[in-house]
Automatic annotation (TrEMBL):
<dbReference type="GO" id="GO:0043565">
    <property type="term" value="F:sequence-specific DNA binding"/>
</dbReference>
<keyword id="KW-0238">DNA-binding</keyword>
<keyword id="KW-0804">Transcription</keyword>
<dbReference type="InterPro" id="IPR018062">
    <property type="entry name" value="HTH_AraC-typ_CS"/>
</dbReference>
<dbReference type="InterPro" id="IPR009057">
    <property type="entry name" value="Homeodomain-like_sf"/>
</dbReference>
<feature type="domain" description="HTH araC/xylS-type">
    <location>
        <begin position="175"/>
        <end position="273"/>
    </location>
</feature>
<dbReference type="Pfam" id="PF02311">
    <property type="entry name" value="AraC_binding"/>
</dbReference>
<dbReference type="GO" id="GO:0003700">
    <property type="term" value="F:DNA-binding transcription factor activity"/>
</dbReference>
<dbReference type="InterPro" id="IPR018060">
    <property type="entry name" value="HTH_AraC"/>
</dbReference>
<dbReference type="Pfam" id="PF12833">
    <property type="entry name" value="HTH_18"/>
</dbReference>
<dbReference type="InterPro" id="IPR037923">
    <property type="entry name" value="HTH-like"/>
</dbReference>
<dbReference type="InterPro" id="IPR020449">
    <property type="entry name" value="Tscrpt_reg_AraC-type_HTH"/>
</dbReference>
<dbReference type="InterPro" id="IPR003313">
    <property type="entry name" value="AraC-bd"/>
</dbReference>
<keyword id="KW-0805">Transcription regulation</keyword>
<protein>
    <submittedName>
        <fullName>AraC-type DNA-binding protein</fullName>
    </submittedName>
</protein>
Length: 276
């Protein structure tokens, strides 16, 4: 049996998505693990051979090109075939956004199996991962970057096509919209650009966003810009024109008109009221 196993020290810089461990193993015949639970997400990708993977609900016979997913807190068991034992890479991870990434891949406790048929790209990413020394900061950055690439490769290769509404929780798309606005409100962005970023039809995204927030994307954008303008009026000595451009309005007159519509007073009067 040949094995490479790397454990990664916890680092708060990678709290959104953090590597726990990763490695490679050429298993002995009938080599097994479990039944046991894990405290982190774990993905195995089979390079050759065969084996079985058992959850609390089902047993799966797996082979080269397939993989299995283990969710924290759930009992699983896996065992290499006696005649043709499997060889696999694995990666374990956790973090604030780990669950969202798993949903993007379309893996779950009830659907823990995937098949990767694109090319050898996934294998190459795993090979790069296990070849990197993790003792320094550049090494830590590279391995976490490769984790993102591995997960994105699995998203791209997902063959179980479903409608967007079923495939990913609505909250994920709403968060993508608000994140994009927070990062780009100072530019002249449009709802079409936001929809392109999220990857959904503009009308469908607008309907989804409004059903979740009770406001349109355009209204959310305007309110966010006005909120940022109020903060600048209060906390800076910038001119009205500079504030206008800082929150995404090239025309100060248009900015003043919109500001008055939403706040009831002009930007200048709003600032004066704050200082009196």
């Amino acid at each position: 049996m040949s094995q490479i196993m790397v454990y990664v020290a916890k680092n708060i810089k990678y709290s959104d998505l953090t590597l726990h461990n990763y490695g490679y193993e050429q298993c002995w015949p009938s080599h097994y693990y479990g039944p046991a639970i894990r405290e982190y997400y774990l993905i195995h990708y089979i390079l050759s051979g065969k084996g079985i993977f058992k959850t609390e609900e089902a047993t799966y016979k797996l082979k080269k090109g397939q993989g299995f997913f283990i969710c924290p807190g759930h009992v699983t068991y896996y065992e290499a075939d006696v005649d043709d034992p499997w060889e696999y890479y694995w990666v374990g991870f956790y973090g604030h956004q780990a669950e969202a990434f798993v949903k993007e891949i379309n893996l779950s406790v009830k659907a823990p199996i995937f098949t990767y048929e694109n090319d050898n790209r996934l294998q190459q990413l795993f090979q790069q991962l296990i070849s990197i020394e993790t003792t320094d900061t550049p090494g830590e950055m590279r391995i976490h970057g490769l984790l993102y690439l591995i997960l994105s490769e699995l998203v791209c290769s997902d063959g179980r096509k479903q409608t967007p509404e079923k495939r990913v929780n609505k909250e994920v798309y709403v968060n993508k919209v608000t994140d994009f606005i927070e990062m780009n409100y100072a530019h002249q962005i449009t709802v079409t650009q936001i929809a392109d970023y999220v990857g959904l039809d503009r009308s469908y995204l607008g309907s989804l966003f409004k059903s979740s927030t009770n406001t349109s994307i355009q209204e959310y954008l305007i309110n966010y810009r006005i909120s940022k303008a109020c903060s600048l009026l209060y906390n800076s000595d910038l001119s009205i024109g500079n504030i206008s451009r800082s929150v995404g309005y090239e025309d100060p007159l248009l900015f003043s008109k919109i500001f008055k519509k939403y706040k009831g007073v002009s930007p200048k009067k709003f600032r004066n009221q704050l200082t009196t």
